[in-house]
User: Fold RimJ/RimL family protein N-acetyltransferase from Actinopolymorpha pittospori.
Amino acid sequence: MIEISTERLVLRDFRITDEQAVHEFASDPAVCRYTDWGPNSPDDTRLFIREAVEEVASPKRDSFTLAMSMNPSGVVVGSCSVWVESASHRRAALGFVVAPAHQGRGYASEAGQALLDFAFEVMGVQRVEATCRPGNLASARVLTKLGMRREGLLRSHLLIRGRQEDSVLFASTRS
Assistant:
């Protein structure tokens, strides 16, 4: 079980009981505007939670999909994840999403910094990447605030809701 505490948050493994809180933001079209998933149906959210819970039992766990919960209330305000993209190249990726009612308060930056530290110190990777859609200025600001550098534009990077979409690539390396 993973639990990472920051000043205001606890990043922890998801529980089945988180389903309703996750569905509230994962079913919101505004939240999913820049993601390659959603808006979620109840079945989509149930599957997400089930997969996140099953991930914990993996004997060679290299993916950490975590609830972003407020400390001390435990209210789930978002989701964040870090996963190995290539073990042989010591490369990981991270991502995050914050519920609309909690956006603009620095939670993504706080969680992102904790995930970067975890990736470098615990997972032992050399490089962490993140992408966002070119129009997602809020995520680009968070990634820049984390010290990640914009490395370029990945043209037609993802197929999202039937359309090829570009991504902006950010990365940070262990220094």
Summary: The chain has one domain: 3-173. The mean pLDDT is 97. The domain at 3-173 is CATH 3.40.630.30 (Aminopeptidase). The first helix runs from residue 19 to 26.
